[in-house]
């Protein structure tokens, strides 16, 4: 039988997401906003990028002495110069025309600034020539358009999933979430005044992080006390969540995969971790038959997870291990989340029904789908073995229903037509009794032969 990669509902849902008007509108709005923002910020962005590249690029350097330093001279020259200055000649002193002119003072700071200007001119132009170019701005705007469209798609998917989860949440879970967030905000307010000395940027960020942390802790604490909260009582009986919890026996049986493929098993499929542990324990058994059954169950789960949406172990905290067995944990989990147990275990069916938990029994489904057989209705059947009573033969219909044929032992390994005489309905299934038409009993045939011989 060919496998399906996804159910029709999943394909329609995926296609509907990409073709929905809301998604297109959000993506277009974010794309336009990204293009406008990138176009307006293009000149400054390009200029900043250009300056960063200039700073990272090595340029020729020039050693500039500090403004307050003067060239040093040797001691001899210094002494000679000082003596010359101290003992001028008498002729030079008497001649006013040959008097030395006063020294011209040069500002070292101006020389330093002029040198820095020369180095800056060597580094290149300060303004990026293409920052105002329309072609460059258009390219940056196109990049912003693409980035904005991607961000819009992510934002739409986030809010879409959040809305779906909010719609699927119970009223009590919504109250728990609201109270947890409110408690987190209240608990983080005092820290806002403590963090005021950290600055205008760090203080709000630190307070926001503490708010998220306190809110998560409060929600987790309230969720761990669901059984004692007044708005969480009788949650399982008040509203069905539609979650289908799979039992170990029904996974090993394998028919649940075919039922799910046919569309009769809708809703979210859920497999607890303790059911997986039991399957793994069976698959690791030393008994070859049990090991084969466990491995078949794991293969069935792998196929179902590939073809259908399935959650594993996300709600196990609502049914902690109290050493009371897998069946008891399944019932408590179904009551906590308002789910339905899918099984073919007769005892689990009875226990769950006593605790007002809805059970989907595959044996009941198979029994309901079997065709009705009425008395005096002909059937064509192959007699393959002997019955429990003398002279009886046993055959089976296509759906596995056992047919007991009176006086069918003599027709072993033969396919023949029989007439239904009685139909018995039991909890384990249906049993049909039939007889071969115009078949005489052996004692009556023997008496007839004896009568003919005596004549």
Task: Walk me through the structure.
- Helix 2 (21-56) crosses helix 6, helix 7 packs antiparallel against helix 8 (202-223) and helix 12 (273-283) crosses helix 13.
- Strand 4 (340-343), helix 15 (346-354) and strand 5 (359-361) form a beta-alpha-beta unit.
- With 455 residues, the protein is of the alpha/beta class.
- It has helices spanning 8-19, 21-56, 75-86, 90-94, 108-123, 134-168, 171-194, 202-223, 235-238, 248-253, 255-261, 273-283, 288-307, 326-337, 346-354, 362-369, 442-454; strands at residues 244-246, 269-271, 310-312, 340-343, 359-361, 378-386, 393-396, 402-406, 414-425, 430-435.
- It has a five-stranded parallel sheet with strand order 3-2-1-4-5. A five-stranded mixed beta barrel has the order 6-7-8-10-9.
- It is elongated, with a radius of gyration of 46 Å.
- It contains 17 helices and ten strands.
- 55% of the residues lie in helices and 11% in strands.
- It has four domains: 1-62 and 106-168, no CATH class; 169-232, no CATH class; 243-368, 3-Layer(aba) Sandwich (Rossmann fold), CATH 3.40.50.1010; 370-454, Beta Barrel (OB fold (Dihydrolipoamide Acetyltransferase, E2P)).
Keywords:
single chain, 455 residues, alpha/beta, Rossmann fold, 4 domains, five-stranded parallel sheet, five-stranded mixed beta barrel, 17 helices, 10 strands, 55% helix, 11% strand, disordered N terminus
